[in-house]
């Protein structure tokens, strides 16, 4: 499989025109016979912007070959991004693995190889990414919560967390502080909601239901509550987004 091939100059044009992700998606559908997931499509949009910055280096020839999502037969493994070309008659290929890391910090450099610490687990560190939405500059932000207004997370049992994830001290720290970050975010959401800066849909009442609930009556009750709460919010939601009735 190969969902994009071309040269540096053409790739940069496609990114600048804002059509690179669409080209990759269309070819992906043609080859794989199914649509890529939304996260995968968004990863192409984000990653290709960064690669455009890398390729802006004038020392990289404009006719350098570019290949995206190259499948290695017969392994089924894919190479995210590949550059190819010739230097003094010798063929060269540069393989680039693209990562959607939330954060990376350099630890040390050795023989031209950089070692970094990477951070994922955004759902633990930022369960309700309201700050990220603001950072991206969205004019209208709609927050859909699965907990009622009065819900707040409780402090985690630090001993159990340490026993299970002791080998990952940064992750342990993230889990232990999650309730603080979550509750602070909820207070921020309430403040912004009162100022009409965001729109929030949340359950209007608490239903005693577990994460692995199997009682069909409780599941139906939860479903019906969600439908009714959403219907009851529609008029105000339309007003918030200036949508004509």
What would you say this structure looks like, in words?
It is a single chain. With 245 residues, the protein is of the alpha+beta class. The protein has a domain at 4-96. Helix content is 44%, strand content 21%. The chain is built from 8 helices and 8 strands. The chain has helices at residues 8-16, 20-32, 38-55, 122-125, 130-135, 158-165, 169-194, 216-240; strands at residues 4-7, 65-72, 77-87, 90-96, 103-110, 113-119, 142-144, 199-201. A 4-stranded antiparallel sheet has the order 1-2-3-4. Helix 2 packs across helix 3 (38-55) and helix 6 (158-165) crosses helix 7 (169-194). The longest helix has 26 residues, at 169-194. The radius of gyration is 24 Å and the shape is elongated.
Provide the succession of SSEs.
Answer: EHHHEEEEEHHEHHEH
Mean pLDDT value:
84
Helical residue percent? 40-55%
Q: Can you summarize the main beta sheet?
A: 4 strands, antiparallel
User: Which structural class best describes the helix and strand composition?
Assistant: alpha+beta
What topology does this entry show?
Layout: E1 4-7, H1 8-16, H2 20-32, H3 38-55, E2 65-72, E3 77-87, E4 90-96, E5 103-110, E6 113-119, H4 122-125, H5 130-135, E7 142-144, H6 158-165, H7 169-194, E8 199-201, H8 216-240
Parallel strand pairs: 7-8
Antiparallel strand pairs: 1-2, 2-3, 3-4, 5-6
Helix pairs in contact: 1-3, 2-3, 6-7
Using brief descriptors, characterize the structure shown.
alpha+beta; two-stranded antiparallel ribbon; 21% strand; 245 residues; 8 strands; single chain; 4-stranded antiparallel β-sheet
């Amino acid at each position: 499989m190969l969902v994009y091939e071309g040269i540096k100059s053409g790739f940069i044009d496609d990114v600048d025109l804002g059509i690179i992700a669409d080209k990759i998606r269309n070819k992906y559908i043609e080859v794989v016979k199914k649509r890529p997931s939304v996260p995968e499509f968004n990863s192409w949009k984000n990653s290709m912007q960064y690669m455009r910055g890398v390729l802006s280096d004038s020392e990289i020839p404009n006719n350098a070959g570019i290949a995206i999502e190259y499948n290695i037969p017969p392994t089924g493994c894919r190479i995210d991004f590949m550059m190819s070309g010739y230097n003094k008659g010798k063929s060269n290929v540069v393989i680039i693995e693209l990562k959607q890391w939330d954060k990376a910090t350099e630890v040390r450099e050795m023989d031209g190889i950089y070692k970094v610490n990477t951070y994922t687990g955004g759902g633990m560190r930022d369960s309700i990414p309201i700050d990220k939405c603001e950072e991206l500059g969205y004019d209208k932000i709609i927050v859909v919560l699965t907990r009622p207004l009065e819900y707040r997370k409780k402090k985690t049992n630090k001993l159990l967390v340490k026993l299970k994830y002791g080998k990952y001290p940064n992750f342990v720290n993230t889990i232990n502080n999650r309730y603080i970050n979550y509750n602070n975010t909820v207070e921020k959401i309430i403040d912004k909601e009162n100022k009409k800066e965001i729109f929030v849909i949340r359950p209007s009442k608490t239903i005693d239901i577990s994460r692995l609930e199997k009682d069909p009556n409780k599941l139906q009750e939860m479903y019906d509550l969600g439908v009714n709460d959403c219907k009851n919010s529609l008029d105000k939601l339309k007003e918030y987004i200036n949508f004509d009735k």
